[in-house]
Amino acid sequence: MIELLKNLVAIKSDTEEGANDALRFCSKWLDSHEITHEVLENEGRLMIHAEIGQGPTTIVWNGHVDVVPGKIEQFNPIIEGDRLYGRGSADMKAGVAAMMEAFRRIYSAREQLKQRIVLHIVTDEETGGRKTSGHLVEIGRTGDFVICGEPTHLKLSVQSKGILHANVTLFGKAAHGSRPWEGTNAIEAAYKFNEQLKTLPFTKVSNPYYEYPSINLAKIQAGDRYNMVPDQCDVAYDIRFVPGQKWEEIIEQMTELAQSINPANIVKPGGKTPAITTTEDNAFVQSLAGVTAEVTQKDAVLFGQHGAADTRYYAKTGAGAIEFGPSGDDWHGPGEYVLISSVEQYADILTKHALV
Ligand SMILES: [Zn+2]
User: Fold this and answer.
1) How far apart are CA 50 and CA 132, in angstroms?
2) Which of 6, 26, 267, 347 could form a disulfide with 77 if both were Cys (CB 3.0 to 4.6 A apart)?
3) Ligand 1 centroid to residue 127 C-alpha, Å
4) 88, 9 Cβ separation under 8 angstroms
5) How far, in Å, from the CA of 112 to the mean position of ligand 1?
6) Which regions of the chain are under pLDDT 50?
7) What pLDDT does 80 receive?
8) What's the 32 CA to ligand 1 centre distance in angstroms?
9) What is the pLDDT of residue 69?
10) Phi/psi at 138 (5° precision)
11) Which of 152, 17, 52, 31 is nearest to 95 (CA)?
12) Which residues fall within 8 angstroms of residue 206, CB to CB, at 6 or more apart?
């Protein structure tokens, strides 16, 4: 399996073509083990769907072979002790290699499986996931429980924050720059708005996995000359809300604040992604936590992720969707690595969990 992982890391899959090459490599590997699978294509992106077993429930293993851009030397995997360095080693070719290996192991026992196990290998997670994971869900290839093999140190990320893009337009009154008291400065209004935003009730909401939502002032646009008081300032926020929070309430509170500064001010919601709200009483989470504790000889840890992954597409259909994968560090950074021992344990956990 580690050989398979090294081969995967060596494929420069930080482009569309590269990611498709990595996908074809996975398909060849499955062929070489006589594992029946489909290679599907959508908008130029390839993906794999394989399924085995029978029974009333379906578990999906989802892994992506595309990676964020890396230096050329990062596509040369290097092993030092328990660490395997390379772009995508942790995020998430280790997850993919372990899923392929676990699938191979249970493939020969597929007649005995009491549930269906589906393997999805996809190629556009790092650029949004819509074309492959999104597509698979759209054509009905989903399940009751989904494991995305993102690096989580063998902890179960059962929730992730939702996303709300909020666009705020603050209006002022133009005046000559030499007599600013005759106008109202829209940039200063935006500054005031931003400060007061942090005191709104929605910023204090928590649940067992999160202490508060994340708020990022992402864009600002205003002013084009020195000698004028700017009369309009547009700001945009990336808000990651806590599962259970309603985005409508956030917009309502922001609108009230903006209009208390100037009744003409406008707050508009942009893109939205629901939060992942899997809970610890989910039966699959419980069985997976049990197997994880057995294999790692440590109590299983459940937590909530701040960012979003391909889990979001599957969760839309009502499936329990979690991120769960091996240990590593510095993914998206120059020193990305994965711990080889955790990849072995991860494959063992998936195998045992499938055979439950
Ligand atoms: Zn990833």
Assistant:
1) 14
2) 6
3) 10
4) yes
5) 32
6) none
7) 98
8) 26
9) 95
10) -60, -35
11) 152
12) 212, 242
Token representation of residue 292: 């994880």
What domains can be seen in the chain, in order of their start residue?
Answer: 2-160+275-354 (3.40.630.10), 162-273 (3.30.70.360)
As a whole number of angstroms, the distance between CA 288 and CA 280 comes to: 11
Task: Give bridge partners of residue 254 from the DSSP assignment.
Answer: none
pLDDT at 73: 95
| Cα separation, 179 vs 192, whole angstroms | 21
Cα within 13 Å of Cα(335), Cβ side:
4
Q: Which two tokens stand for residue 44?
A: 């130029």
Alpha-carbon gap, residue 276 to 161, rounded angstroms: 7
Q: Are 288 and 349 in contact (CB under 8 A)?
A: yes
Q: Any idea what DSSP says for residue 275?
A: P
Which residue is listed with tokens 């400065």? 185
Distance (Å) of CA 84 to CA 9, 31, 80, 342, 350:
10, 26, 6, 11, 21
Output the pLDDT for position 356: 87
- Kindly give the distance from the C-alpha atom of residue 92 to the centroid of ligand 1, in angstroms, as a whole number: 5
CA distances in angstroms from 203 to 212, 276, 306, 338, listed in the order given: 6, 19, 15, 35
Query: For position 308, what pLDDT does the model report?
Result: 78
Handedness of CA 259, 262, 268, 273 (dihedral sign): negative
DSSP category for residue 207: B
Structure tokens at 216: 């990022």
How many alpha carbons fall within 13 Å on the CB side of residue 146? 29
> Over the range 213-237, which residues count as b (16 or more CB within 10 Å of their CB) and which as e?
bebeeeeeebeeeeeebbbbbebbb
